[in-house]
Amino acid sequence: MTKKLNSKYIIIGAGLSGLTIAYYLLKNGESDFIILEGRDRVGGRINTKDGIDLGATWFQNHHSNLNELMDSLMLNKFEQYSKGQSVLVYNTMAPAHYFESHQISPSAYRIEGGSATLIEALTKNVKNKIKLNTTILELIDDSQTIYVKTNQGVFSAEKVVSTIPPKLSATLKFTPSLPENILHAMEQTHTWMSNAMKIGLVFKKPFWRNKELSGTVIGQVGPVIELYDHCSNDGRTYSLMGFINEGLRDVSPEQRKERILEYLEKYLGKEIRDYISYFEKDWSKDQFTSCENLKSVYMSPQYGNPLFDEYYFNGKLLFSGTETSPEYGGYLDGAVYSGINAAKELLNRD
Ligand SMILES: Cc1cc2nc3c(=O)[nH]c(=O)nc-3n(C[C@H](O)[C@H](O)[C@H](O)COP(=O)(O)OP(=O)(O)OC[C@H]3O[C@@H](n4cnc5c(N)ncnc54)[C@H](O)[C@@H]3O)c2cc1C
After folding, report:
1. I need a labelling partner for 56 at 20 to 30 A (CA). Which of 87, 118, 120, 144 fits?
2. How far apart are CA 187 and CA 28, in angstroms?
3. Which residues on adjacent β-strands are paired with residue 203?
4. Which atom of ligand 1 lies closest to the CA of 322?
């Protein structure tokens, strides 16, 4: 087999888990690795555009792995804005219920500068090791070497850690095949938030704050399921961000936007139409997060199957990523936890 590039380790995926592995390897003096990433950007399910987190946003104090990583990267957090009246919509035909959420809910935090700041900090010292637009197609176990077949050729290493979400990993070719039990576990592991649809609206002014509204709009019956204030902490950008109803997936983009605006106008006021920019992201349409055979999951699925902790390909292949984590699987914290563990495994094995 022709070798395109050799390194001791290959990390597959430049999402939070993959970049955490790289950060810890480097921190512990190991620099002999490369990172292969299918997308044309880093971050995976962390994706911030014009200050809008179209992927992950919030975390809490008990997410200790993430909090510690942020401290070590000297990143700051700030509390989600929730002052003023929030809106609860039970029935789109009946009047909305208004409530104060500020005092009752446990604090949710955001990363200063947006979630992508975490990715930028992790990427800082490993930029030259990341190969974008490199989609993994097959993993081949061959004696002392593991080969990674991609759309950009074949790469080889002593060990590979894959952070591809398990459900997508199940669509890869493994030669020889992996045991049936892990393939089954991969197929059964829902990719967290892979069915989510998010929107973001940027404004000149936070008009809702000026009306004593928090910007929070919650309800299962309308086009918008959850909406929150998403202004930056430094007062430079003013925006609203939230999740929309999956029923809007197959509606045309123009109709979708109009239904969202019409709905929000009712609860936040006509100023909603004065947005500077509008963003939307349907994660189910993103081939690096979602699969064709995706089904919506409304219950929190189980993560951290112990089968993901084992080595495969005679000790050369390891899995990581938030869905493999027994601690806060699905969340940012789970991605960090699994990344740290994978890095420790690599460092301790040699
Ligand atoms: C809309 C949304 C909202 C969310 N909100 C929150 C939140 O508020 N708080 C929270 O804690 N978590 C949230 N999450 C979850 C959080 O984003 C994830 O837990 C975390 O980012 C996962 O990181 P990861 O590295 O494990 O996986 P990923 O970010 O999915 O990284 C995997 C990487 O592998 C790459 N890849 C996939 N297939 C291939 C292939 N064949 N070849 C090469 N590369 C490939 C991908 O492009 C990606 O970069 C949210 C997620 C979404 C989508």
Report:
1. 87
2. 34
3. 238
4. 26
Which residue's alpha carbon is nearest to atom 12 within ligand 1? 331
Query: Which residue, by CA, sits nearest to atom 38 of ligand 1?
Result: 288
**Residue-range domains of the chain with CATH:** 6-45+118-190+297-349 (3.50.50.60), 77-111+195-285 (3.90.660.10)
204's tokens? 């000149």
The closest-lying atom of ligand 1 relative to the alpha carbon of residue 150 is: 42
Segment 269-291, tens digit of pLDDT: 999 999 999 999 999 999 999 97
SS3 246: helix
Residue 269 Cα to ligand 1 midpoint, Å, equals 34
Tens digits of residue pLDDT in 75-128: 999 999 999 999 999 887 878 889 887 655 668 999 999 999 999 999 999 999
pTM of the entire structure?
Answer: 0.96
- In the chain, which residue ranges form alpha helices assigned H by DSSP? 16-27, 64-72, 116-123, 166-169, 180-188, 207-210, 253-268, 332-349
Q: How far apart are CA 18 and CA 342, in angstroms?
A: 9
Decide if 162 contacts 320 (C-beta within 8 A).
yes
